[in-house]
């Protein structure tokens, strides 16, 4: 129950009804006897600046998770950013410090890697293909770079997105091999779809049938799409005998990172 003494965290985006964080966090708070609650906020874009100002003055609020479409816009409204959030130009979590300072981080990549490690994937020295170079694809690629991946191949129909991510990774990780050419999937330890392809009932695949015919059973295949849980790509990978990582696994692995940054849960929950 929310009481006068309850401390708050929030999740902001638009729309907001589809997000799972409030039920995940509020269940954890209740099970662990924490007098904390998460509120969902569907915010109009025009209110973003005044929202950030309100967060600074909101004294019983510990932090705020940020979701689509405000990850980039809110990064520009804060008082400090982690190195990875600054490099990516996007935040998915904000901590309100006791004096009202707002600090941002982006734990999308950490969540992805946490889930991948549960499948026994250790990035150091490995080769990865990341399909989709938007917000989430960039965060995953950056986390792979930080974790010492040997080479990364990127694919995106948007030349601007592809170019921007190549430049970002090249600047941040000078020793990383970066390619944009995919002729087969045989050499990849990890194939990750970080695009919305396969969402809903589209039945679309993010890679061509010819490329998918080269997929090997020792490759970990991951998808960020949360609905359906088993996307057409993951269904195909299962048929080949690959280990698969779902979008909900990535989302769940992020909870501890989000909560720990806001100071309301341990890292491992
Ligand atoms: P975004 O719009 O920033 O980026 C999507 C990228 O995919 C764009 O660069 C676009 O050009 C690219 N793309 C589109 N069609 C493509 C194709 N056929 N092949 C390759 N690339 C293609 O979106 P985002 O914020 O990065 O989100 C991407 C997906 O991740 C969404 O479906 C979102 O719901 C999901 N997501 C999942 C989690 C999770 O925890 N599982 C977290 C955040 C977002």
Automatic annotation (TrEMBL):
UniProt keyword list: Amino-acid biosynthesis, Aromatic amino acid biosynthesis, NADP, Oxidoreductase
Entries under Gene3D superfamilies matching the protein: Leucine Dehydrogenase, chain A, domain 1, NAD(P)-binding Rossmann-like Domain
Any GO molecular function: shikimate 3-dehydrogenase (NADP+) activity
GO biological process, one term: chorismate biosynthetic process
Pathway(s) of this molecule: Metabolic intermediate biosynthesis; chorismate biosynthesis; chorismate from D-erythrose 4-phosphate and phosphoenolpyruvate: step 4/7
Pfam families documented for this protein: Shikimate_dh_N
Gene Ontology annotations for the cellular component aspect, listed alphabetically: cytosol
Domain Shikimate dehydrogenase substrate binding N-terminal: 11-94
Signal peptide span: none
Tagged with keyword Disulfide bond: no
Keyword Ligase: no
InterPro entries linked to this entry: Aminoacid_DH-like_N_sf, NAD(P)-bd_dom_sf, Shikimate_DH-bd_N, Shikimate_DH_fam
Source species, domain of life: Bacteria
Protein name as annotated: Shikimate 5-dehydrogenase
Organism: Pseudomonas putida
């Amino acid at each position: 129950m929310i009481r006068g003494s309850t401390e708050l965290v929030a999740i902001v985006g638009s729309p907001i009804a589809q997000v799972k964080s409030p039920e995940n966090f509020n269940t954890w708070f209740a099970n662990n006897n924490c007098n904390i609650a998460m509120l969902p906020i569907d915010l109009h874009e025009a209110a973003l600046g005044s929202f950030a100002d309100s967060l600074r003055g909101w004294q019983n609020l510990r932090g705020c998770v940020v979701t689509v479409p405000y990850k980039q816009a809110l990064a520009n409204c804060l008082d400090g950013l982690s190195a990875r959030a600054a490099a990516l130009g996007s935040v998915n979590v904000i901590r309100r410090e006791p004096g009202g300072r707002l600090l941002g981080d982006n734990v999308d990549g950490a969540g992805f890697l946490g889930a991948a490690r549960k499948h026994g994937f250790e990035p150091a020295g490995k080769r990865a293909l990341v399909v989709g170079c938007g917000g989430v694809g960039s965060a995953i690629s950056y986390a792979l770079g930080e974790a010492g991946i040997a080479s990364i191949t990127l694919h995106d129909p948007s030349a601007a997105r592809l170019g921007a991510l190549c430049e970002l990774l090249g600047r941040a990780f000078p020793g990383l091999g970066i390619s944009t050419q995919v002729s087969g999937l045989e050499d990849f330890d990890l194939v990750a779809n970080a695009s919305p392809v396969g969402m809903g009932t589209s039945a679309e695949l993010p890679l061509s049938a010819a490329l998918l015919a080269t997929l090997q059973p020792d490759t970990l295949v991951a998808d960020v799409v949360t609905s359906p849980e088993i996307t057409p790509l993951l269904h195909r990978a299962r048929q080949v005998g690959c280990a698969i990582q779902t979008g909900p696994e990535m989302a769940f692995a992020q909870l501890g990172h989000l909560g720990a940054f806001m100071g309301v849960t341990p890292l491992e929950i």
